[in-house]
Amino acid sequence: KAGVTQTPRYLIKTRGQQVTLSCSPISGHRSVSWYQQTPGQGLQFLFEYFSETQRNKGNFPGRFSGRQFSNSRSEMNVSTLELGDSALYLCASSLAGKITDTQYFGPGTRLTVL
Amino acid sequence: AQKITQTQPGMFVQEKEAVTLDCTYDTSDQSYGLFWYKQPSSGEMIFLIYQGSYDEQNATEGRYSLNFQKARKSANLVISASQLGDSAMYFCAMRGSTLGRLYFGRGTQLTVWP
């Protein structure tokens, strides 16, 4: 079974631009979660989608948004990029996001904002 | 809310020796899951082991075992017979009533030396 894939793997953007990151979950997984990882803040939860609906959201500004498609693939968008948005963005999928469901992570997208 | 504490920023172990990575958690949920992940320098989060709050036996997966002490709210990871390839950052995480969301500790950087 193919793992979680994320594209692109690396991105360089400038302040004020917007960016879209893509995540394809493991086949059969309907829950997709996004995390931001920085050296200073560690791993922070952005949001989680299940069956095309945002089910949970972390404490991030509205510039961060996402969506999920009927095939469970997910995208996240960051508008008006700031220097502090430079981070590793990790996508994870699980069957349904339940307590016992293991989240499997993709390789991440490393975003650099100049 | 859930909180994960990993008090060891860095650990060193000689090859073939066993090592214990500490993790304590705080939650008001009765039902929860505990996870350990490994993150090599490449960035991808690799799932290692899972323990459910109602599991009576400690989880084991190959060289990994979880020392689960529910009353103390601790879930320490034990790696037996360390290998050079075990050098990585290790994260403890938990999921409770918030579906699809994992709460992570700050991680422990493990270095295995020959």
Number of helices of chain B: 0
What is the radius of gyration of chain A computed over CA atoms, rounded to a whole number of angstroms? 13 Å
Distance between the termini of chain A: 37 Å
What is the 3D shape of chain A? Answer: globular
Q: Uncertain segments of chain A of ≥5 residues (pLDDT<50)?
A: none
Quaternary state of the chains: heterodimer
The helix-strand sequence of chain B is EEEEEEEEEEEE
Residue stretches of chain B low in confidence (pLDDT < 50, at least 5 long) are none
The rough form of chain B would be described as: globular
Average pLDDT of chain B, rounded to a whole number, is 95
Number of strands of chain A: 11
Radius of gyration of chain B: 14 Å
The main sheet of chain A comes to: 7 strands, mixed
β-sheet strand percentage of chain A: over 45%
Q: Quick one: which chains have the greatest interface?
A: A-B, 29 and 26 residues
User: Helix fraction of chain A?
Assistant: under 10%
Q: Write down the secondary-structure element order of chain A.
A: EEEEEEEEEEE
